[in-house]
């Protein structure tokens, strides 16, 4: 009797609520794939596809995106590359705020000036800032996108250092295809999987890309209005303040404490009481004095001094780099015909290689200055340690690492310094890489064929002169290191 009642109750529930209330709908089976030749990748891919289907992604789309994908070792190398030579800030800026890039931005503004003006009016982001980001990200759409987005994202997800992050991007890419937001030719990307002219990751595309002309497509690949509005929307969404500056170049008084350049936000009025003045001598307005700013010394006490405002940090949300944000702001000025920085870069100080930075961190730690885990990257912990060492030695505590500072640390530690190894000639693969880098930097080296002809040799000489190197025209490891640093 009890069994009969249970059956009747279940039947009534099924009639009232439908079959799904009794038996959950099983997800469709995940796609099947042929072997890529890499068993570890295949295991990750199959498990990812299973989990993606469980999360609601379409197995047919997953099958199209991931079938035939083989992990790309070049992408892992680019992601993990630890270049020996770290570009000094002045080279980074000089190699990006170029006449060609400025002319390209002005030409684009001539073509779509009305659209840029309307985008600025809606989002509050100046058209020069939009163009600066556009120029850096894709050279106004001219940069080649040499990778398949699904393969790039799958390679980096499988590699594992940031697996959850890149699996999230891959899920977003799948959703883009499911919703018919992008077709196969549009799924070309940077090595990191960034898409289109603004170089959006797939999740950013889904949340931030704009259909400016209301044609039903958020086309960040070919539609310039959509590209401009998408960049502006990204910055506006992350807190851009309409009408506020990005930075002010300033002059510091005699005897100024460089330790104040520690990232602390103070009002401009506070900085003014400390003797900080605009580089051109103009007075701060009442609105300016209420702004919050931090003091930034990108090249230490002997280089330019900048007060960074809120919008500088917003640009950093696009690319987490002070250098990047500075270049965007300088390009915006240049598009308007305004001058760049007034103060000169202290090129005579030189810069440290990554190996030297690693040595610097190790020596600082050994002498009681906490520089964090030595990794060859100059971050905030290392800057604090350098500042503390400088203060103890009676030096300007600007936190900027130089070869002279490293030598002082070596002397205190009693470390003998071996002379640098002489440059070596490049093999054919190295010559091809050098040719590609020189072409990307605007030095016409011809086809990247791994052969040294007159055109490549001349491009090397021009590049060497621009870098302050002896113009030998030879393809060596030193020239390749310098080109890698210049290309960022």
What does this structure look like?
The chain is mostly helical and 488 residues long. Among the domains are: 352-413, Muramoyl-pentapeptide Carboxypeptidase, domain 1, CATH 1.10.101; 428-487, Muramoyl-pentapeptide Carboxypeptidase, domain 1, CATH 1.10.101. The chain has 21 helices and seven strands. It has helices at residues 2-17, 39-54, 59-66, 73-80, 89-94, 99-123, 127-138, 149-159, 163-178, 202-208, 224-237, 268-273, 286-289, 310-318, 322-335, 354-366, 380-392, 403-413, 428-440, 454-466, 477-487, and strands spanning 147-148, 188-189, 247-251, 266-267, 277-278, 292-296, 305-308. The strands form two sheets. A five-stranded antiparallel beta sheet has the order 4-6-7-3-5. The N and C termini lie far apart (79 Å).
How would you summarize what this structure contains?
This protein is mainly alpha-helical. It contains 21 helices and seven strands.
What is the fold's blueprint, element by element?
Layout: H1 2-17, H2 39-54, H3 59-66, H4 73-80, H5 89-94, H6 99-123, H7 127-138, E1 147-148, H8 149-159, H9 163-178, E2 188-189, H10 202-208, H11 224-237, E3 247-251, E4 266-267, H12 268-273, E5 277-278, H13 286-289, E6 292-296, E7 305-308, H14 310-318, H15 322-335, H16 354-366, H17 380-392, H18 403-413, H19 428-440, H20 454-466, H21 477-487
Antiparallel strand pairs: 1-2, 3-5, 3-7, 4-6, 6-7
Helix pairs in contact: 2-3, 4-8, 6-7, 6-11, 7-11, 7-15, 8-9, 14-15, 16-18, 19-21
